[in-house]
């Protein structure tokens, strides 16, 4: 993990403590299931939203559902 990656992760964690959906949005995007769960938990209570956002930022890989063939261009 490089310095830039560490700084980005710290910024995401800071945003997730101040406004939990914002930190999740920076890490995973605005139209993901993680983001909407964070919004719902934050509406239901601030502390559950913060705990979920920190968990998602630290342990869930944003590229876990990515197709490995997506990076290749097939020319016929």
How would you characterize this protein structure?
The chain has 76 residues and is mainly α. It has a domain at 14-59. It contains 4 helices and no strands.
Task: Reconstruct the topology from this structure.
Elements: H1 3-18, H2 20-28, H3 33-44, H4 46-59
Helix pairs in contact: 1-2, 1-4, 2-3, 2-4, 3-4
Family: Belongs to the UPF0057 (PMP3) family.
Transmembrane segments: 37-58
Main location: membrane
Share of helix among residues?
55-70%
Distance between the termini: 38 Å
How many helix segments?
Answer: 4
The averaged pLDDT comes out at 82
User: Using only CA atoms, what is the Rg?
Assistant: 15 Å
Strand content: under 5%
Form type: globular
- Biggest β-sheet description: none
- What string, H for helix and E for strand, traces the elements in order? HHHH
Count all strands and give the number: 0
What can be said about this structure in brief?
The chain is an all-alpha fold and 76 residues long. It contains four helices and no strands.
Attribute tags:
single chain, 76 residues, mainly alpha
């Amino acid at each position: 993990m490089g310095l830039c990656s560490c700084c980005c992760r710290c910024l995401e964690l800071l945003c997730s403590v101040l406004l939990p959906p914002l930190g999740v949005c920076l890490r995973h995007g605005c139209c993901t299931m993680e983001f909407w769960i964070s919004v719902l938990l934050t509406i239901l209570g601030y502390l559950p939203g913060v705990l979920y956002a920190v968990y998602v930022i630290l342990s869930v890989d944003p590229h876990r559902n990515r197709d490995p063939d997506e990076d290749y261009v097939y020319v016929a």
